[in-house]
């Protein structure tokens, strides 16, 4: 059974009147997505480790086939992934080269207020690295550099943090959180404090 196409920016179902290859449900979503794309740091866009993703976060190639977080043949450049209409959005593959992502699950309420445990993590980062709002809109991805040989899920102050550095892909929205910089900073001290 075919799945309902979804807007690449807001993840809402596409209107019935949308063109077959449309990526956005309305002009405002198209404009917001293009602004977000400019927010993704060059340390990520310069690496050819991009995939597309479905609305259910399944990684796919720019051609729409299933992609793998461990098979470089299924990855592409940022430019090719951004131009592709496959799936519902972008994803970046972590391959152990030092780029890491701390996924702070369910730390934002419906008004955008951040939970105390997540605020403590962001205070430790001290505005030194790029942070984006997750696809669901209620979590944060803290991107940076560090050594993290194995992914982990840790409970910190009542919240859940997933730490990844290899063998995974992360859905990328490009929706910068607050005034965080458009660059990746050193996260090793944060990784060491929670692992």
Question: What does the model show?
Answer:
The longest helix is centred in the first third of the chain and has 13 residues, at 27-39. The chain has a domain at 99-194. The protein has helices spanning 27-39, 42-45, 78-83, 116-125, 188-194, and strands at 50-53, 59-60, 89-95, 99-105, 131-133, 140-145, 152-156, 159-164, 166-172, 185-186. A hairpin with a 6-residue loop joins strand 5 and strand 6. The chain has five helices and ten strands. With 195 residues, it is an alpha+beta fold. This is DNA primase/polymerase bifunctional N-terminal domain-containing protein.
What's the arrangement of secondary structure elements?
Layout: H1 27-39, H2 42-45, E1 50-53, E2 59-60, H3 78-83, E3 89-95, E4 99-105, H4 116-125, E5 131-133, E6 140-145, E7 152-156, E8 159-164, E9 166-172, E10 185-186, H5 188-194
């Amino acid at each position: 059974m075919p799945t309902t196409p979804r807007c690449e920016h807001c993840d809402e179902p596409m209107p019935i009147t949308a063109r077959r290859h449309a990526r956005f449900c309305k002009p405002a979503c198209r404009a917001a997505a293009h602004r977000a794309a400019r927010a993704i740091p060059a340390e990520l866009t310069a690496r050819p480790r991009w995939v597309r993703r479905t609305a259910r976060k399944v990684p796919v190639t720019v051609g729409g086939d299933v992609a793998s977080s461990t098979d470089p043949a299924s990855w592409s450049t940022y430019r090719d992934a951004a131009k592709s209409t496959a799936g519902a959005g972008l994803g970046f593959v972590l391959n152990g080269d030092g780029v890491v992502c701390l996924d702070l699950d369910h730390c934002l309420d419906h008004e955008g207020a951040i939970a105390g445990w997540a605020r403590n993590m962001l205070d430790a980062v001290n505005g030194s690295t790029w942070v984006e709002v997750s696809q669901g809109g209620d979590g944060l991805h803290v991107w940076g550099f560090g050594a993290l040989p194995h992914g982990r899920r840790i409970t910190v102050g009542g919240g859940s943090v997933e730490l990844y550095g290899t063998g995974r892909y992360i859905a990328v929205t490009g929706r910068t959180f607050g005034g965080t910089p458009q660059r990746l900073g050193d996260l090793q001290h944060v990784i060491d404090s929670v692992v």
